[in-house]
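Two entries, shown back to back:
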Amino acid sequence: MKHKEVISNWQHTLLVIGFLFGNSMIYSMGIRYAERDTFLAEIISGFLGAIILLAIALTVNLFPNKTPYQIMQKKLGAIGAKLLLIPFFLFSVYVSVTILDDMQVFMITLVMEETPPWVFIFTLALATAWVVRQGLEVLARCAELIIPILLALFVVFFFLIFPEINFEEQLPLFTSNLVDICKATAVIASFPYLETILLLFVAPRVTKPHKLYKSHILAISIATFCLSWRSVLAITAYGLNEGTRYIFTMFQVSRLISFGDFFERVEILFLAFFFFMIFIKIALCFYVSANCLASILSLKNYKPLIMPIAIFTSALALNNYGNFQEKLIFQFISWPLIVFVMVCLFVFFCLLTCYTSIKS
């Protein structure tokens, strides 16, 4: 399969930031375990994500302008490479399903309770698929336009919420035991930091592979810093007991913002932030899914697969969970195990890449 698409390192950095924010911005899953020390789990998870991204950068530099499939094929043969791609394809599809499901649950629970779920799911999926079908460069230009505005919006959001928070609620620190911090780290790392293994299929498209290390460190640093505030803002704004009960913590915090009598309902801006970030993440997942499937089927062009994948993931998202409680159980228990298995496959691929590079 031939690839002619290229993106700049700056565009790739913004895509990584958008992927990390994605649907994770509305949640603060680990807060139920580590409470006031959740920010420690966030930092540890960010460190694990940095290792993944640096490993991707190393792989791309060892085999510049080579796709993961071409690298696998060199050592495992065509059949072995396709078999190894299947888990990555399934993983990217299910991440897409999770994003669509999170979006429709969020909208139905807090914004438009009477609207059927399929309206949100199919609208987002088909609109995103249309953009991805135009090519990775178009998606990268969208990120180049949108992500800086959204990051500026996050800074404004922080300064507006500052008068509403009480940092004394964050004290005392370091009261959680090691087991609770590890539990929080497992949940937070699996969503979204370790999901970055999918960016293995995007990174080879950059124009300057030797600068990927810098791009990835910058992206993971910005994302980790911003996401670490999820639990802190929830606790300092609502207190420990109430702050740990909320599911969509950042949206609840945004509702507290009021600037005089003329600047209220700021959660609408947060909705825009949320929608554009999940657009970037699900677009990248569609891109990865289509590329994996195209390689498995030995197709030269991945673009005709985008729309069928979007429709397929939409159908899955409509019947993903019986209720929200099932989703939480899956997110806390099953998803970290699935991500762990995928990380093991990623490590195997990295070791295979290093071995192939040394032999050649």
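entry 2 starts here
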Amino acid sequence: MKSSTGGTPIRVLHIGPRVADSGGMASVISELIRADVAGISSSAITSWSPGAGLWSLPLAIEAMRCVRKHARDPEPLVVHVHIAERGSLLREGAVAIASASMGVATVITLHGAELSFAGWSRRLLTAVVKRVDRVYCLGPSNAKDVEGLGTRTEVRVIFNPVNVDPEWPPPDQLAPSADHLVLFAGEVGVRKGFDVLADAWSRVTTADPSARLLVCGPQHRSFPIAAVDHASSMEYLGVLPRDELGALMARVDLVCLPSRAEVLPMVLLEALTVGTRVLYTRVGEYQQFEGGPGVTLIDPDSTAAVLADAIRAQLGSRQSQSERREVGRWWASRASREVVLALLRDDYRQILRAKKAPHARADR
């Protein structure tokens, strides 16, 4: 567990996927438990593992037991449950309800590109939201949907937290390559729009022979990258450790993620906080990026020709070091893990004070 300075810290238990696994939710929890912010002592409890299916149920039950154990301790406790769609809504939703039923201050963050606000999902989500003390959404669209459930639980919009190196950027990281480098980082498949990017890439290299596409991430079983033939202009690097991926983001000219379904991609925030421009589609909580420096947005149904034109436009003029620093600082001031966790800490304190007040939840 990571301790903080400044008196008795609030113990925060982040519940969700195993932090060692790849994926946005695991990355978020990893950043939250690593941040050093006074007044917070954070740790992670695993409630599921990707691909485990029903075998994750024992993990969720054990997570509930851990919450009960910590609830007996005298120090202030907040349980922060990270919830996505389908099975996660059932599993982590049950953990959140159980935690709240123990009288523990309980908050949730809603992740998941396919989270539904209709049918059984809406009913279950309403039951969960009604029981917890606060709901965090990654953008205004989901926040509006949650508010439409008709509960009295407060809803707040936050950024995913990003680890920002205070010494960034070292001069050698910003030395431009002779090639124009574009990075795709994410699941190599249809949901992330790699199929459209692969179709667009020949158009890009026809106009700019120096352009190279670096591809990082797991391959979806229905879309083997070996089927994409662009010779030396495209390189598949596999699944990189996060520190290697971060260093790569600082060297490329553009991060391109033409997704069809997302919430708030960590990879884009990580790229922007090191000053690298991004090209993204208007899906999920794209409003969080709209109007910010270094961001270009296109429609999710854009053709390969439109995507190729957008990429060429970005590669047509390189950023200076000062421009990169300006972009990085702007996004770091909003999405660094220290900024995000300081906001959460203040909320946790407010929630704990409110729970001590008489009849604090009598109207729920």
